[in-house]
Write a structure and sequence with these properties.
FAD/NAD(P)-binding domain, about 400 residues, 5-stranded parallel sheet, Enolase-like, domain 1, 3 domains, single chain
């Protein structure tokens, strides 16, 4: 296949698009444009990168030399200022143009800064980029008082990292327990309680003004806004994101969108790493004229206080919860069932349970709750249908 493709944005969605195009046999010009030094992985920003255990080269999404090996033209430290789909080109921040038949928008999002007093103060941080993490790391000195607003995934991870750096941390969120919709009520409550075991104070309230906070450092972890500026200027259809079809195609057939800014009509973005990766693979399949990869149950992970937590499927759809092991004593897992079938699971320090749960969800396998709950049960036997209730 010939014809050029430009990918705008070097996050996991953009790099996955480029990788899937080349692995799928695309032989046309392929350009990846990114504002940073190099395309890097974002999850470590709140963990190993923030703590200083890893540098930017350690979290690169592809090894050195991959772009040359794959004939991907990487244009770094550059932004796209305008789409020109009618001309088959994009305009760059240096005033030059790059031409291609298709453009894939992987523009990501930006961290929310709520319109409250004090939000613009220099001691108030967000965490979305490596530059954000560099600034925040410089402020997280031993003994610093840190207020983390928002106890979602980013907030909880930053609070954990700041504590390991010797900071005095307060974590504020009006929801109690945070993330109960995705972890389930019991697991969410236990996870939130672990903060106190590590010396983090939790406050179950919102913050109306940052001027009234006497913390040395404030970190906002209150959400993300999809970056749709380019799409809007090009008059693509947008509504809380860039509207795409099931092949990631926007309202202009020459433009696709993947990752955080992309949204199916009447659907909610998941906003997780693997979902963005799958978007890129679907976009590549569309460009190549291939069938889309088979759908699989959504999955994500988080890491805090040396606990590795994975979630798969939709625990909110469960009518019954089965705990494997002892809740609060890792490793353990909680499986959500509906109509006798596994529809979701959360596991702490037990990735094997989540892998098995994902296969059960994808294959619509029914499981005997008693056997599912027994840690001695080989989950592979349940995957084969052994021990399935009549």
């Amino acid at each position: 296949m010939t014809g050029g493709v430009i990918v705008v944005g070097g996050g996991i969605a953009g790099v996955s698009t480029a990788a899937a195009l080349r692995s799928g046999g695309f032989d046309g010009d392929l350009t990846l444009i990114d504002a940073g030094e190099l395309p890097y992985d974002r999850p470590p920003l709140s963990k190993e990168f923030l703590s200083g255990a890893k540098e930017i080269k350690d979290i690169a999404l592809q090894p050195e030399g991959w772009y040359d090996d794959q004939s991907v033209r990487l244009v770094s430290r550059t932004t796209v200022t305008a789409l020109r789909p009618g001309d088959g080109a994009v305009e760059l921040s240096d005033g030059t143009f790059v031409r291609a038949d298709r453009v894939v928008l992987a523009t990501g999002g930006r961290a929310v800064r709520p319109p409250i007093p004090g939000c613009g103060n220099s001691r108030v941080h967000v965490l979305r980029t490596a530059e954000d993490a560099d600034r925040l790391r410089a402020a997280l000195v031993p003994g610093a008082t840190v207020l983390v607003v928002g106890a979602g995934l980013i907030g909880a991870e930053v609070a954990s990292t700041a504590r390991t750096l010797g900071c005095e941390v307060t974590l504020a969120d009006p929801v109690c327990p945070p993330l109960f919709q995705v972890f389930g009520e019991d697991v969410a409550a236990w996870l939130h309680g672990v903060h106190a075991e590590h010396g983090i104070k939790t406050v179950h309230s919102g913050v109306d003004s940052l001027d009234e906070q006497d913390a040395d450092v404030v970190v906002l972890g209150v959400g993300m806004v999809p970056e749709t500026t380019l799409a809007e200027a090009a008059e693509l259809e947008t509504d809380r994101g860039i509207i795409v079809d099931h092949g990631q195609v926007t309202s202009n057939p020459a433009v696709l969108a993947v990752g955080d800014p992309a949204r199916l009509r009447h659907a909610t973005r998941t906003g997780h790493w693997e979902a963005a990766q799958h978007d890129g693979q679907r976009a590549a399949a569309t460009i190549l004229g291939n069938p889309a990869p088979a759908a699989t149950a959504p999955w994500f992970w988080t890491h805090r206080h040396a606990l590795h937590v994975e979630v798969v499927g939709d625990l909110g759809a469960a009518t019954t919860t089965v705990v494997r092991g002892s809740l609060g004593e890792p490793p353990f897992a909680a499986f959500g069932l509906h109509g006798g079938r596994v529809v979701g699971a959360v596991a702490v320090n037990d990735p094997t349970a989540v892998r098995a749960a994902r296969r059960m969800i994808d294959r619509a396998i029914a499981a005997d709750p008693a056997r599912l709950a027994d840690p001695a049960t080989d989950l592979r036997r349940l995957l084969r249908g052994e021990g399935t209730p009549p």
